[in-house]
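re the bet — no i am not wrong, look at it urself. input seq straight from the record:
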Amino acid sequence: MREPQFWKSKNYLSLSLLPIGLMYHLILMFKFILIVPKKTIKPVISIGSPVIGGGGKTPTVISITNLLLSNNYKSISIISRGYKGKELGPLEVQKYYSAEEVGDEALLLSMVTKTYVSKDKTKGIEFAIKNGSSILLLDDGYHNPSVKKDISILVIDGMVNLGNNMIFPSGPLKEGFKSQLKRCDAIIVINKKYIDKYLLEKIINSKKTIINTKINYFHKIKNLKNKKIIGLCGIGSPVKFFNALKNLRFKIIKKVIFSNHHLYSKKEVLSLIELLDNNPEYSMITTEKDYVRFNNNNDPLSKLRDRLNVLKMEIEILEEDKHMILDLIENKIQSYKN
């Protein structure tokens, strides 16, 4: 889903939905009280966002995985629920799977390390361990009470913040922020300079381990001067994508926006090709998540994929903060060996 406009402020509509939001929060809290989380035989690291959509979870999982790999950690696997994918799992994501089957996030994650899709997180973890995994990263497992997490990491993005600070459906929060903050072991901060002052104070006052990052962007478009750009995306927070293009000094003449995790049809692909055919002086750029949703089913001759430019976003943990996340993980790994 795309973030509704009324999530950005407290208004009549958000306030009218408040009772549902409180009920949503209470149900989740009861789940955490009543459900006994299953302990695994390997360390589990959970990465989550306090908000629905566009919170930076997936690129953070990739960043932590790359950090572990660069420090010679082996047998790292990622567990994803494969949002919007039809497959229930558990299964290992292979190159021949499509976004329709396993979801766009799982496809991206599988390019980094072994990735397993399972709607049931516990079964997914057991399947990964059976297949030789020694360290398990849960993509978006923060609000799942069924699994015992050894490390819980909350990702907070200053380009998103907490919206109107209200719980779904009144706002973007998955549950009350205070309870989310209480459960985490560390907070990874993205776009720190844009974080609301009151939110930054809460983060600092929480006394949790704070890990700072920077964002690197990569693209292959050359000679940007006077280049006219069509921005295409179907993500949780389109404003982040278009702000990135603006900061990179792209001249955006048209925005084509679909809902989050949108699965493109053949008809939509043809209309995008037609848009480019009718405007040969334009270049089209999209996100990595969108690009993996184009395949031999909706773009059989690769007519769109061959013309698409991709903006790759990389979250990099600051050099001076890397030891904090590595120490946190190493301590847990050692506890399993003792």
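see?? Residues 5-74+134-215+316-337 form a domain with the Rossmann fold fold (CATH 3.40.50). told u. also The radius of gyration is 20 Å. so pay up
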